[in-house]
Design a protein that fits this description.
By secondary structure, the protein is α/β, with parallel strands linked by helices. Helix content is about 40%, strand content about 15%. The chain has ten helices and eight strands. A six-stranded mixed sheet has the order 1-2-8-7-3-4. It has a two-stranded antiparallel ribbon with strand order 5-6.
Length: about 250
């Protein structure tokens, strides 16, 4: 493994030791860190089991969008624990909670057309970040949502190039960074699996500026899918960046 970056070695070590740590360390709530369970009863009732969905003004190219809740009060901690602290099992309760947002965005389409069931499509994760973490968080969330709703999950999209980390970037910079960075996979068999009349529901963990959903929707539209919705676990609206001081 000579030449392997240190962060990749550390990530590999964490993945290798995770099963051992699971045996000797007590399970803790991903939201409040209470010992005893992956999601304590209080956090589950407060954050995940309300059955409500927060409908949002959708990004360009997306017909409807909804989230489980705001990126605050524990949901933010759970998402960060999933992605950055190597607890992929958290994707199951977080993904299952997407059932209500999925029902909310699909309702108008289902009422108008029942010819094809909606398809869940995870937003594609940068391959380097997927290697670092050892899992694809969006795919795990989509699979859990699929189990909860009975909808099919198809990895229809892929990244065409690496993208710089988006945190710290404004809305226009995020859109430029993601411009043509997402495309529909070229596999003919894969494309044939998904009816072009079906509603495509994009799945992600956090919705900030909407640039990722917009780029994914654009790729789908170009490839012939005209009905695109989006759901995310948490909404963290991009706040205006303070103007640079001229003093």
């Amino acid at each position: 493994m000579l030449g392997t970056p240190l962060h990749e070695l550390l990530a590999a070590l964490a993945r290798a030791t995770a099963p051992i740590l699971d045996l000797i360390a007590p399970e803790r709530c991903g939201a409040c860190d209470e010992e005893g369970t992956l999601f304590c009863a209080t956090c589950r009732a407060t954050l995940l089991d309300s059955g409500a969905a927060a409908l949002q003004d959708p990004p360009p190219g997306v017909r409807a969008a909804a989230t489980v809740g705001p990126y605050a009060n524990g949901l933010d901690v759970a998402v960060r624990t999933l992605k950055f602290h190597g607890v992929p099992r958290l994707a199951r309760p977080l993904g299952a909670a997407l059932a209500a947002p999925i029902a909310a965005v699909a309702a108008p389409w289902v009422a108008a057309s029942a010819d094809a069931a909606p398809i869940l499509v995870p937003t594609p994760t940068d391959p380097a970040r997927r290697r670092e973490r050892g899992f694809d968080h969006a795919l795990l969330l989509a699979n859990a949502a699929g189990e909860a709703t009975g909808l099919r999950v198809v990895e229809l999209l892929e990244r065409t190039r690496a993208v710089e980390p988006l945190h710290g970037l404004g809305r226009s910079d995020r859109r430029r960074a993601l411009d043509q960075a997402i495309a529909v996979r070229t596999s003919a068999n894969l494309r044939a699996q998904v009816d072009h009349a079906a509603l495509i529901i994009l799945v992600d963990d956090i919705w900030t500026s909407g640039a990722t959903f917009e780029a994914a929707a654009q790729a789908l539209t170009v490839a012939g899918w005209q009905q695109v919705a989006a759901v995310a676990v948490a909404r963290d609206p991009l706040r205006a960046r303070p103007a640079a001081s001229t003093g």
